[in-house]
Specification:
The protein is an alpha+beta fold and 108 residues long. The protein contains 4 helices and 5 strands, in the order βααβαβββα. A 5-stranded mixed β-sheet has the order 1-5-4-3-2. The longest helix is centred in the N-terminal third of the chain and has 15 residues. The N and C termini lie far apart (30 Å).
């Protein structure tokens, strides 16, 4: 099922980090494509099982669902899906990192 969403960064610091990337950086290009995809369908990533959601995300952001969007070269973008008062879906980007950092975060 395709569900369009508004895409936001979880906090200003993360958004500033994204905006500070050079336009020709492959990560910035990849995240920009991911944002376009998430605007069209909030569920275009792969849902992470609840038992695997890092406690850090639950404590810091009160996340109760987590999605992984695969970026090129083994990078990952993590986001959560929520709704506002008008029942508009919101995809909130939490973090992105390379595959090795992703494995450490999820203790693989």
């Amino acid at each position: 099922m395709i569900k369009p969403s508004k895409v936001v960064f979880i906090d200003d610091k993360l958004e500033k980090t994204f905006n500070s990337l050079k336009d020709d950086d492959f990560i910035k290009k990849s995240i920009t494509k991911a944002i376009r995809d998430l605007r069209q369908n909030a569920f275009s990533g792969i849902q992470v099982p609840k038992r695997l959601i890092p406690k850090e995300y639950v404590q810091k952001y009160e996340v109760n669902n987590l999605w992984k969007y695969d970026l090129p070269k083994g990078w990952r973008l993590l986001y959560t899906v929520t709704a506002d008062n008008e029942v508009e879906l919101i995809s909130a980007i939490l973090e992105w990192f390379d595959h090795k950092s992703y494995e450490r975060k999820f203790k693989y």
